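Hello everyone,

My group is preparing for a crystallization screen and wants a predicted model to guide construct design. The compound we'll soak is pyridoxal-5'-phosphate. Before spending weeks at the bench, it would help to have a computed complex in hand. I've included the protein sequence and the ligand's SMILES below. Output in structure-token form would be ideal because that's what our pipeline reads.
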Amino acid sequence: MHPKIWLSSPHMGGTELDFVNEAFQTNWIAPLGPNVNGFEQDLKTYLGHGVEVAALTSGTAALHLALILLGVGAGDEVICQSMTFSASANPIVYQGAQPVFVDSETDTWNMSPYWLEVAIKDRLSKGKKVKAIIPVHLYGMPAQMDQLTALSRQYGIPLIEDAAEGLGSRYKDRALGSFGDLAILSFNGNKIITTSGGGALVSANHGWIERARYLATQARDPAPHYQHSVIGYNYRMSNICAGIGRGQMQVLDERVTQRRARFDFYTDLFKNIPGIRFQPEVNGSYSNRWLTAILMDPSQTPSGLDRERLRLALEAVNIESRPLWKPMHLQPVFEGCPYYGEGISETFFEQGLCLPSGSNLQAHERERIAKTCLSALELTK
Ligand SMILES: Cc1ncc(COP(=O)(O)O)c(C=O)c1O
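Reply:
Good plan to model first. Here are the tokens for the complex, ready for your pipeline.
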């Protein structure tokens, strides 16, 4: 059996253990300490635009706190991009609110500003309280932030930017994660940088971030005994994990360059092959290319190859690839939730495949991938 080639695996830079060792030496083995402060500072500096950052246990926890800060509760609605990972939508339900899903547009594959406005108007006309909008930067590709931000302002509905996959990407030369009223990041093991598991909440509203830190540490009131006046959560990042994060921040830009090189490898591999398309960079966007994703139209590809046959061909030789996210409005768990769109995300799901994109993919592994893809297409180069 061939050794496994992963879709996206952790890639340490080398200094992570220094920070972790320091935590051990100084006995800061807790969900607070110098690494947590240092990691937050690194992220603030990287994102710019006066943001404040709270390091948390996961991106999902960050989204949950974002919704709490916006006062989302039972009877409210939150509009969310349909084409995403379920963690973008789950916290809406944690809060007893109703997700409303919006389709993608063909340029960025992210939330369609057109369908967003249709959804807002229709929900408001039905007397619904729409409390937030959650666009996602799918596979690192910036969503149409100018148009989405303009709609958020026009209708007075706050934007929560799901930048879980977008750290290191830029839109009109501004870092993703610095646009929303609130934004979230993920440092899960498969992301462009990782803390093994972790996330962050970001906002230029420093009061919100201070409140998020309080809620994330069990909402302890200032008193010598344990006193609580609101429900709290155990969502703060550990000082050990934050140490990994500090090391990873030193190589973030290098990781973006490496991921973009993977994208170039695939565009070169599939150039001149009909029926295969990539996620384009449009309107001044610069993607971290966290994952390289393709759309395959079997009516045009050689030998009518579709994404499932290619996935199986890769799997047969122990290479991991993955269909694009199955849209949330098609998920059994979200059955019955309102959806606004024209089936773009459904086509993406049917035709889309994410290819191994790790920044640590070796040349011989890329060769194996190329050989397998071309033989599935019944081509040799
Ligand atoms: C788009 C998106 N949103 C949210 C999350 C949740 O992040 P986490 O796994 O850190 O909870 C992820 C990834 O895992 C994601 O890809």
